[in-house]
Design a protein that fits this description.
The protein is of the alpha/beta class. The protein has 14 helices and 12 strands. The protein folds into 2 domains: 232 residues, Aspartate Aminotransferase, domain 2 (3-Layer(aba) Sandwich), CATH 3.40.640; 134 residues, Alpha-Beta Complex (Aspartate Aminotransferase, domain 1), CATH 3.90.1150.10.
Length: 379
Amino acid sequence: MRFGTKAIHAGVEPDPTTGAIMTPIYQTSTYVQAAPGDHKGYEYSRTHNPTRTALQNALAALENGRHGLCFATGMASIDAICKLLKPGDEVVSTNDLYGGTYRLFTKIFEGFGLKFKFVDMGDLRNVEAAITPNTKLIWAETPTNPLLKIIDIAGLAAIAKKQGCLLGVDNTFASPYLQNPLDLGADIIMHSVTKYLGGHSDVVMGALVVKDDALAERLAFIQNSSGATPGPQDCFLVLRGLKTLHLRMQRHCENGAVIADFLSKHPKVDRVYWPGLPAHPNHTVARAQMRGFGGMISFTLKGDRMEDATRVLSSTKLFSLAESLGGVESLLGHPASMTHASIPREERLRNGLADTLIRLSVGVEDAEDLVADLAQALG
């Protein structure tokens, strides 16, 4: 079954009671049992809910996995992964990553005895050098947030296998349409479902997908025990969003290419970060492991003046200044003060995240209108 067909049909069956083609919203907290322990697979909605089950099965199918697990937010899903570890365990992470992930690692789980190392994973030798016998998890984003670096997933998987540790990949920026890390050797895929999977800026959710049965069982135990599960209404919204994922991602990629080309030729733009550009340092790896380059773009202006960046951020008409990404509407943001403000400034600068960096989430509007909007803001 090809991707577009899976996006519409995977995990979804007509309702056996009414024949409804859309999975119903099972807005219930509990389920009647015929006798103690004699039930239809559902006892309490924190543990299982039919709407959530349909979504979890659909996400597993799209990522070529066996098990999907949904959480109330993307951060709750990463929290569950960290709970697989114990005090003294080490995590090797990319040094360019979402600020909320950095905050969870350093401000929460370091306090419980986990140790984190942040390295530039563009060179896998940096990962190998950071590995110790205590390393239990390698954590990567690719493309990274916000510098759009591309990390060789198959190369990371080989290192993880040699070390005997887990490899987790945040696949949010790519979506299953562009990249399937499990096929490249990853153990766990994480998605901020809020973004491209939901696709309409109307839901907050996270998800994990795995192939290994034992690992899925451990994560499901954490999911149920910690209780950070989404409600059925949110699951319904994402099921609806998945049905157009392939169509939306095609347009995101097409528009992303147009915008990246425009920015790369603009006299006021200094650097453009988009893996589809041949000048991108990881372009070859991106071509090898992705089926397209997505709609996320970051750029800086010549002169590196904050007042110039602020003017652009405040002057667009179609690009809305807001956090988040991956919706049908175009957004722009300022990572240093918004999505990555929790990372200390000196560390941001050391990792190449300039104070003047602007991040775009290119939507599915007409590309000509988006170019015109950026042109007037830059002008």
